[in-house]
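Page 37, continued from 36.
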């Protein structure tokens, strides 16, 4: 575990990386949001924004506050379902949005009433329309980054030693972008002119998706001017993946995901099997060792919100949205925290739901990544008919 002095240095370095990730410029208005447990990091991020000539605004909340919002019987679902118009106006006027993992203890979400979670999710839809450019008048959206941050309570929740959890997040976030870009560039070259991608493993993953004529997105920890010009405006920290918006109505098979956490309740799910056909998740056929009804309820909850969105011409809650390959050298095992799991070397992840923000055609309140075991096999069929195995048991063969 890092000493206080070492932690201060890590906070400073991570704050600089976070601000670099959204390419802050002079006079940029930047909204900085997170949990009170990481207040030191939030303030260092804001100071970095100031040093870049930007104008930061910090908002932070505690786990206890969130617990009371959802647990207080005097706070009605009707109230939670109202869009915060003052926040919406602020989001319309910012240039960049920085979110640090808001909850110190992810387990507090497990007991939040689902109807209240759905109400707040629906209320935030107009805000997400602005952030991600879902409506034409808000295209292309705002620059954004979502960053993790370690806590002992989260390490306990994910059943991982705190020092390893800190390594995954802080060391994973500190990998130089030049090193990550070299790794992602190498991966990206293998997918040039790819038509179909088949992924298998020994645990039950066996599916194909089409990436034909879809751009390759490089997540190396820095938002470049080239990425901004293409409409690729956001990223995660830790970074370390390449990803695509596959053709949303093509592809079939099964994804086996050893660990994940529910998008609304935060509950851990183990050994999830997700069959899909014609690019659409067969939700009633999904299986898991536990909490599978929470998974189904979260997709249904998002579908209900999508049906109320007048800007959605076709419901895409269940359609394939992302195909990604992880490559961060500091992240070595799945723990159920999607932000780090999807960056594991040798793993592949598939998301369902929204993907317009990185080259797809779907708008949805759902975006859930399911990560394979880090021993994936990848075969690519190219547009000229050639086929090539580029990964075997999680190791690149090219």
């Amino acid at each position: 575990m890092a000493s206080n002095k070492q932690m201060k240095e890590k906070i400073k370095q991570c704050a600089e990386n976070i601000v670099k990730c959204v390419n802050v410029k002079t006079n940029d208005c930047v909204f900085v949001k997170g949990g009170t447990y990481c207040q030191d990091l939030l303030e260092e991020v804001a100071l970095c924004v100031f040093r870049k000539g930007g104008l930061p605004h910090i908002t932070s909340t505690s786990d206890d506050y969130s617990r009371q919002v959802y647990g207080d019987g005097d706070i009605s679902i009707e109230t939670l379902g109202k869009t915060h118009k003052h926040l919406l106006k602020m989001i319309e006027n910012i240039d960049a949005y920085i979110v640090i993992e808001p909850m110190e203890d992810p387990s507090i979400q497990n007991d939040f009433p689902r109807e209240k979670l759905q109400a707040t999710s629906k209320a935030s839809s107009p805000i997400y329309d602005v952030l991600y450019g879902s409506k034409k008048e808000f295209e292309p959206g705002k620059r954004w980054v979502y960053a993790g941050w370690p806590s002992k309570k989260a390490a306990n929740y994910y059943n991982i030693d705190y020092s390893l959890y800190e390594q995954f997040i802080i060391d994973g976030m500190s990998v130089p972008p030049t090193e990550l870009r070299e790794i992602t560039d190498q991966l990206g070259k293998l997918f040039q002119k790819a038509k179909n991608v088949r992924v298998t493993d020994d645990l039950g993953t066996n599916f194909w998706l089409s990436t034909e004529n879809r751009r390759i997105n490089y997540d190396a920890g820095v938002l470049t001017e080239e990425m901004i010009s293409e409409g690729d405006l956001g990223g995660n920290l830790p970074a370390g993946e390449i990803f695509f918006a596959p053709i949303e109505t093509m592809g079939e098979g099964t994804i086996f995901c050893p660990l994940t956490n529910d998008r609304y309740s935060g509950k851990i799910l183990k050994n999830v099997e997700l069959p899909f056909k014609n690019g659409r998740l067969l939700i009633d056929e999904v299986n898991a060792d536990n909490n599978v009804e929470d998974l189904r309820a979260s997709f249904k909850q998002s579908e209900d919100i999508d049906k109320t969105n007048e800007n959605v011409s076709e419901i895409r809650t269940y359609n394939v949205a992302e195909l990604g390959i992880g490559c961060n050298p500091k992240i070595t095992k799945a723990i159920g925290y999607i932000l780090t799991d999807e960056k594991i070397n040798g793993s592949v992840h598939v998301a369902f739901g929204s993907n317009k923000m990185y080259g797809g055609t779907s708008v949805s309140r759902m975006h859930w990544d399911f990560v394979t075991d880090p021993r994936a096999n990848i075969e690519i069929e190219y547009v000229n008919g050639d086929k090539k195995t580029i990964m075997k048991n999680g190791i690149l063969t090219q």
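The mean pLDDT is 95. Flag for discussion at group meeting. The chain has two domains: 4-174, 177-396.
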